[in-house]
Write a sequence for this structure.
């Protein structure tokens, strides 16, 4: 009686490559933050400084603006309150967009709107209507600023190392008042209130160039992207040659 032939091994399907180990592409969870991570934090600190300089310049230049444009207290109060018209609404709306567009790109848009709003006021022909309109757009752009800055900074750090970056961003707001206010006051006294608005606008443009060169989001994937990637792996539509 002849012995039974061994069962042939089934060849692995070429369309279903075996996934690499789970830690093949993921960064080590205990890896220290890179130099790039702290560069991004420094840029976001500067982001918060400019943010608060944009807020405070109107109050510092208030007397000069009222005198130059002949505004009543009611008119100037309207200019100041216009900042908050879209502040909260934009904060919520941009928060939803950040999961789809990315916080780093949204920061670029926010600062571009800040800078444009401030530079328009520096034009000699700008009057009450321009002041109201630009304070509305400035408030809409600054409403989501702190949340987006934190979101971007945290993407570079593991959970247990996020306290210091978050604290530094909070300090950035105080620096914007403590350091920015004297600089703006000197500018207003020496060059006029429109020059102070121009200064904040130029600082925003310079920040944009620096952010495009050295900024960006970190390796931490948002939960939505992780879910999308896992779903693609389960259905066999993995990216990068089938690697999950």
């Amino acid at each position: 009686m002849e012995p039974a032939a061994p069962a042939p091994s089934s060849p692995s399907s070429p369309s279903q490559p075996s996934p690499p180990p789970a830690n093949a592409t993921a960064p080590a969870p205990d890896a220290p933050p890179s130099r790039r991570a702290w560069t991004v934090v420094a840029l976001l600190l500067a982001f918060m400084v400019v943010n608060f300089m944009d807020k405070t310049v109107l109050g510092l230049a208030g007397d000069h603006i009222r005198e130059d444009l002949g505004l009543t207290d009611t008119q100037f109060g309207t200019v100041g309150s216009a900042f908050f018209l879209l502040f909260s609404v934009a904060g919520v709306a941009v928060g939803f967009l950040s999961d789809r567009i990315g916080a780093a790109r949204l920061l670029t848009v926010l600062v571009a709107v800040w800078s444009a709003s401030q530079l328009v006021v520096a034009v000699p022909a700008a009057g009450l209507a321009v002041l109201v309109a630009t304070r509305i757009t400035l408030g809409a752009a600054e409403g989501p600023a702190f949340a987006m800055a934190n979101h971007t900074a945290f993407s570079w750090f593991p959970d247990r190392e996020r306290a210091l970056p978050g604290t530094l961003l909070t300090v950035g707001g105080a620096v914007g008042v403590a350091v920015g206010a004297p600089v703006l006051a000197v500018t207003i006294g020496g060059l006029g209130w429109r020059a102070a608005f121009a200064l904040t606008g130029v600082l925003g443009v310079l920040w944009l160039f620096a952010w495009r060169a050295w900024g960006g989001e970190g390796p931490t994937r948002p939960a939505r992207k992780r879910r999308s990637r896992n779903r693609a792996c389960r259905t066999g539509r993995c990216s990068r040659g089938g690697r999950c």
Notes: The longest helix spans residues 35-60. The chain has twelve helices and no strands. The chain has a mean pLDDT of 83.
